[in-house]
Each structure stands twice: as structure tokens, then as C-alpha cells.
Design a protein that fits this description.
Chain lengths: ~280, ~290
């Protein structure tokens, strides 16, 4: 039951060890290893997420090989890279789904010291590549459940989510599984927004979507920026990422190969050649 | 002529009896299917919870000398308590391993029922009837206890439906049954949600155990045949579907009661197994089962 809902980002050459890696809620496997996290510099002002020397492996298959990355409040930061580079692994690790070595700190606190539930409560919301919707529930029930950990006015948030994605309001009573891929993506993002994120992990929101839908998602991201939502965007579509991100990291084969502003990276020869096409 | 009238009365009684027995089966099957649907766990100790209910009522009314109503309450509560202990003490740690769960719940169910046999009562037990007397329906006398069982079971089933479909916690239960990961993404605590389903399943099984004992007497192994029927019921209705298990309970409850009363009492439970095999061959997802991928 739990295995079919795993995020599959293609980084797994094998399934080995994935189950062990998921025992996040209770076990603190790397208690001592956490010292490397303590050695990192103090959290700078406005820094929401700080990742340093992050290493993650699925059994013997190494997915992340010592990554450093940070996201400041109000920023949109993109992680680009080919399929299998480790983007979804990064997002899943930040969310507390995977065991890791090194340090992942959200609001200054190690992810491994928190349960996924606590992270959600503290405003870290993950919109996964696999979407993980409640297929046999209506759109509105899916959205309402997005606010499960939020007290206060759910109706108000529902209204603003519908403003962002009018299509969802039209389909409010429809079961999630009966919707198109693009609509399901909107629902996944909408459900994440219902959780009132301080930091939104947005994993491959454009994957397999038609250009028309892409525009809707683009608009939504800009509206979220206007509302002050901080976003870590994992994205294969380099053009899309460059259009929205303030800063970009290029992840290849589990390592960060480049980082900079979109302008800087556009001028980079390697990126030009491999990712933008010449 | 006289024979014909009594035969008609007999048939009517069989049908009315089936109506209330099936409601009890539905209670047992709902718990069984909910625990599976939410946690992916087949609880083979579910039958033992029925026995726990029956024995609790037996001691509450006998040794403690309390009323049968106190027995009904105590039986249901203890069923829920034992189920909660089973989940918190054992199942939550091995939940992801289906084979280990099957073996452990089978062994624990065995230990509970045999413990009751050895340290409790090896023979049959009986408790006072909930309500005596009978009411006439279309010229046929119907035992009041059957009416009570029917009404009480449906009140519980209706309450569960309302809880699951219209409360935040109920919807969270549905959410976990549909997507474990999706549920954790929105911050639903899956351990607590699983615990709720075990408590509900245990309450329902304990409640059914008391009423079965009140209706037809009980014994340490009284949970086995309802467990087997539950298996058939939830497979017929669609594993994990509450509505399916109510429908399945009525289909199997009727067929089983009719077979037993009209053909041969020794066939009890066999019809359920026959239906189970046919369903598995023809429509393995059951009547209201979800497709494998959702």
C-alpha cells in the first residue's frame, strides 16, 4: 500500500533499500552524523532552507553526493537537471521522507528531527511529481484536506485557490481521478496552497503538460510569488525554470554543477550547449 | 393447510432472521475491510475480537451480575480496547510486511481465543436476551431481539457512514485509504488514523459478539465462522469498500441463512467460501472495489 505511492524520480536504478530509507518518522539513524550539520554556518537572516553536504543513497545507489543549497524567504529557486539527476530525491529529503547524511535545515531545524507532520505544520509543503491526489474524492474534498493542519478560514483559502485555478471550481464536485493530467496538476498545486506554505517544494509541475496548461501553471507561480510564497522548483524544463527563478542550481548525477542567476547561466557555455540548445 | 401456513411462517422467519444476522455480519466485515483499506492489513485476529465481546458480556452479566445492557457496552468497549492494544503494541511496527502481519494476527487471535478457553470457559456460554417477546409483522411473529439487532446495527452503520463522509477525521481516514503519501503530504497523522480504524473495527466486532451470543449462545471459537464469512463478504463487496461490505454482508448473510435453515445446518460457512472462490475467479476486485491503481 505504501509502496505504490512512492515518488519515483527515476533516480532509482534499483528498489534496494527504499523501504529502509522511509522509516523517517521514528528513527534517527544518523544521530551522530548530525554533527556535520552543526558545523555549518549559523542561519542567515531570512534563510528558510539550508542544505549542506547532503548525501542520500537508495541502498548502494547514491542519489545525492554532497549538495549545498539555500533558499531565502520570498525567493523562487530552481533546481534544474536531467531526469534522474536527483531533483525529486532532494525534494523528498527536504520533506523528511528519506534518511540522509549531512544537513537539511528548514527554519534552522534539522529535517530528521521533525516528523513530516510537524514540517507540514511549520509551513513546509511538498507538491510531488507523482501528485499523490485522493483519486476517489472530489476536487473540493482534496482541496479541503490540503488545509488539514490549518486552523482558520478554510473557505477563504478555498476561494483564493479557485481564483487562481477557475478550472478547479468548475470541477469542484468531480472525482480527482477523472480529471486530465493538467487539471490534476492544478489540483495538486491547489491542494499544496491550501496548506498555506511558507516554503513550497514544487516538483516537476510541467511534466507532460500541454503548452496551454503550462501557461496556467506559469501564471499561478507568478501569483504565488506576488503573495510572498517561497518556492523551491525542481524542473526539467530549463526555459520554464529560467522564466521564473531568481536563482538556479544545475543538478547532474547527484552533484551541483552550476549555480547562479538565470542571466548568468544563460551566458554559460555548457548550459547553452546542453540545456538551451545552440 | 395447517402445514402450509406453518411453512410460510417458517420461511418468513428465516428471511427476517437473515435480515438481522446479515446486519451483524456487516458490522464485523466493515471493521475488517476498513482496517485493510486504510492500513493494508488483513487482521486475522478480527474473529477473536468477536469472542472477546461475547465473553466480556458473559462475565459482566454473570460474575459481575450487571444487566445485559452493561454487558453490551462492556463487550463493545473491550473489543475496541483489545483492537487498539493490538495495533499499538504489535501491528504498527510490522504494518508494511503483509506476511508478518498475517502470521502475527493469526497467532495473537489464536492466543486470545485459547486463553479464553483455558482460563475462562471451555464450553458454551450464554447471556440473557437483550429483549424478550415478539412483535407481529404481517401475521408473522418476529422476535424482538431480531428487530433490536437489525435497528442497532443499522444505527451504527449509518453513524459510521456519516462520520467517514462528513467529518474532517472521517475524510482523513478515506484519504489515507486512497493515498498514504498524499495523506502525509497534507499532514494527516497516519498512525493515529490507523488506530481509529482499529478501534472502530474492535468496537463493532465486540458489539456483534455480544449480540451473537445473546442470539445463539457463544463459545471461545465463536469468531471463526464470522471471520471466514467476513473474508467472503469483503472480497465480494470489494476489499476496502465500506458500502461494498454492507452489500456483501446481505448477499452472503441471506444465502448462508437460507442454506442453513432450509437445506442443511452443516453447510454453514461453506456457501460463503463457494462465493469467495467464484468472485475471485470472475471479478477479483469485488462489486464496489476500486481499480488496482488510482
Amino acid at each position: 500500500m505504501s509502496t505504490d505511492s512512492d515518488a519515483d524520480d527515476g533516480t532509482r536504478g534499483t528498489d534496494a533499500g527504499t523501504d529502509d530509507a522511509e522509516s523517517v518518522d521514528t528513527d534517527v539513524l544518523f544521530e551522530e552524523g548530525g554533527t556535520s550539520g552543526e558545523a555549518t554556518a549559523p542561519i542567515a537572516d531570512g534563510e528558510l532552507l539550508s542544505v549542506s553536504d547532503l548525501r542520500v543513497a537508495y541502498g548502494k545507489v547514491v542519489a545525492l553526493r554532497g549538495i549545498d543549497l539555500s533558499v531565502d524567504e520570498g525567493e523562487i529557486v530552481a533546481v534544474i537537471g536531467p531526469n534522474g539527476a536527483g531533483k525529486s530525491t532532494l525534494a523528498d529529503t527536504v520533506m523528511g521522507f528519506l534518511d540522509y547524511e549531512g544537513s537539511v535545515r528548514y527554519r534552522g531545524q534539522e529535517a530528521r528531527e521533525r516528523s513530516v507532520n510537524e514540517l507540514v505544520e511549520e509551513g513546509l509543503i511538498h507538491c510531488t511529481e507523482t501528485r499523490d491526489l485522493f483519486g476517489y474524492m472530489t476536487v473540493e474534498d482534496n482541496l479541503t484536506l490540503g488545509a488539514y493542519r490549518r486552523s482558520g478560514d478554510v473557505d477563504e483559502r478555498l476561494a483564493s485557490t479557485y481564483d487562481l485555478f477557475p478550472r478547479l471550481e468548475e470541477r469542484a464536485d468531480q472525482d480527482a481521478r477523472t480529471m486530465s493530467g493538467g487539471e490534476q496538476q492544478m489540483l495538486a498545486i491547489g491542494r499544496a496552497l491550501m496548506g498555506d506554505p511558507d516554503l513550497l517544494l514544487l516538483d516537476e509541475p510541467t511534466l507532460g503538460l500541454a503548452p496551454v496548461i503550462l501557461e496556467d501553471i506559469s501564471d499561478a507561480i507568478e501569483e504565488m510569488r506576488a503573495e510572498g510564497v517561497t518556492i523551491l522548483l525542481c524542473e526539467q524544463n530549463v526555459t520554464f525554470a529560467m522564466n521564473h527563478a531568481d536563482r538556479i542550481y544545475l543538478l547532474e548525477n547527484g552533484s551541483i554543477e552550476r549555480e547562479g542567476t538565470p542571466e548568468e547561466l544563460r551566458g554559460d557555455e555548457y548550459i547553452q550547449e546542453v540545456y538551451i540548445g545552440g | 393447510m395447517l402445514e402450509l401456513v406453518s411453512l410460510q411462517t417458517n420461511y418468513a422467519n428465516v428471511l427476517l432472521n437473515a435480515l438481522s444476522i446479515s446486519a451483524l455480519y456487516a458490522l464485523v466485515a466493515i471493521g475488517f475491510t476498513m482496517i485493510f483499506g486504510v492500513g493494508g492489513v488483513l487482521n486475522l485476529a478480527h474473529g477473536a475480537l468477536i469472542t472477546v465481546g461475547g465473553f466480556t458480556a458473559f462475565w459482566t452479566t454473570g460474575a459481575l451480575g450487571l444487566s445485559i445492557w452493561a454487558g453490551l457496552l462492556a463487550g463493545a468497549l473491550l473489543g475496541g480496547l483489545v483492537a487498539a492494544a493490538l495495533y499499538l503494541g504489535v501491528v504498527q511496527f510490522v504494518q508494511d510486511d503483509a506476511v508478518v502481519v498475517l502470521l502475527l494476527t493469526l497467532i495473537i487471535g489464536f492466543m486470545i481465543t485459547n486463553g479464553l478457553r483455558i482460563f475462562g470457559q471451555a464450553g458454551t456460554i450464554s447471556i440473557p436476551q437483550i429483549i424478550g417477546g415478539s412483535t407481529s409483522f404481517l401475521g408473522t411473529p418476529v422476535e424482538n431481539v431480531s428487530i433490536f439487532i437489525f435497528v442497532a446495527s443499522w444505527v451504527l452503520i449509518g453513524a459510521l457512514f456519516a462520520f467517514v463522509n462528513y467529518t474532517a477525521t472521517g475524510k482523513a481516514i478515506l484519504a489515507v485509504s486512497m493515498s498514504d503519501k498524499g495523506a502525509s503530504l497534507v499532514g494527516i497523522p497516519s498512525t493515529r488514523i490507523n488506530l481509529y480504524t482499529w478501534i472502530i473495527g474492535g468496537l463493532f466486532a465486540g458489539f456483534a459478539g455480544v449480540l451473537l451470543t445473546s442470539l445463539q449462545g457463544g463459545s471461545w471459537d465463536m469468531g471463526i465462522s464470522p471471520l471466514v464469512l467476513s473474508f467472503a463478504i469483503v472480497v465480494l463487496g470489494g476489499l476496502g469498500s465500506i458500502r461494498g461490505s454492507v452489500i456483501g454482508a446481505y448477499i452472503i448473510g441471506f444465502i448462508d441463512t437460507i442454506t442453513v435453515s432450509i437445506f442443511d445446518p452443516q453447510l454453514a460457512g461453506l456457501t460463503g467460501l463457494a462465493i469467495l472462490i467464484v468472485v475471485l475467479l470472475v471479478r477479483p476486485q469485488g462489486l464496489l472495489g476500486r481499480e488496482a491503481t488510482a
